[in-house]
Design brief:
Elements lengths: L13 H5 L5 E10 L6 H15 L6 E8 L2 H5 L3 E2 L6 E10 L4 H10 L11 E14 L17 E8 L13 E8 L14 E8 L3 H16 L5 E10 L11
Antiparallel strand pairs: 1-4, 1-5, 2-4, 2-9, 3-9, 5-7, 6-8, 6-9, 7-8
Length: about 250
């Protein structure tokens, strides 16, 4: 339900901004389809209690976030092309400058075997550089730290073409936005994602409800053809120990 906080937004307080800013420069995003045998909850439990916390051994890892799409989320998508239509799971890691991507790969290889029961079907994965960030003044929290603010979910935009989505911050339920642009991968084995942009709209109201509000401004954003949508979809954030709460 909507809420109100009182006070001055951090981005309008020079003394708060002077205390520091995020050093996150890059994200790694993994997009997956639902598990073929319906074992999504088992996977979410394993990943959350084993694989994901182990990643914090990596130098430069600052944050991680898992998102899940439900049938209601799917129905609320504003756009989904054939490539990204299967996506029901999104895992994102946030890295600081100088992070050890080699260590990230080595740890993933080390955690295979009996500790990894199975994999979700992979749709796509790659690295993207942070290109911009904005926070709603009503959220009070500054743009630098929006990903660490509790969120009910994320509205994820994957687009071909580079353009700020900052105007979407005016929509009720959007607390902040970080957007990321592709390019040459900092690690081997990934394609050049130049020209692709990922935008994470962090939501503090129900993602399905916010998705309906975003339909009109997104249609306007894509009208000229300069920005081509590939996926525009709401997701819920995973609730720890409630593995069956949001499932595809």
């Amino acid at each position: 339900m909507p809420y109100e906080l009182s006070g001055t937004a951090s981005d309008d307080l020079p003394q708060v901004l002077a205390a520091g800013s995020t050093d996150v420069e890059m994200i790694f995003t993994s997009l997956s389809a639902r598990e073929q045998k319906g074992r999504d909850a088992d996977y979410l439990q394993w990943h959350s209690l084993d694989h994901r916390p182990e990643q914090y051994r990596i130098s430069g890892l600052r944050h991680s976030m898992r998102l899940v799409s439900t049938p209601a989320c799917r129905a609320a998508r504003a756009f989904s092309d054939a490539r990204y239509s299967p996506v029901d799971h999104v895992m994102t890691y946030f890295f600081a400058a100088g992070a050890s991507f080699g260590q990230f790969r080595a740890l993933s290889d080390a955690l295979v075997g009996e500790r990894r029961p199975f994999r979700l079907p992979s749709v796509d994965s790659n690295y993207f550089s942070l290109a911009g960030k904005v926070a709603a003044r009503r959220a009070l929290t500054g743009a630098d730290v929006i990903p660490w603010r509790p969120a009910r979910g994320v509205y994820l935009l994957i687009e071909q073409g580079l353009a700020s989505p900052a105007s979407l911050i005016e929509m009720s339920g959007v607390a902040g936005i970080w957007w990321h642009q592709g390019g040459k991968s900092p690690a081997p084995g990934f394609s050049d994602a130049g020209g692709t942009q990922l935008s994470y709209c962090y939501l503090d109201e129900d993602p399905v409800e916010v998705a309906e509000r975003l339909r009109a401004p997104l249609a306007e954003r894509w009208k000229s053809g300069a920005i081509v949508p590939l996926l525009a979809a709401p997701f819920y954030t995973l609730v720890p120990f409630e593995w069956t709460r949001y499932l595809p």
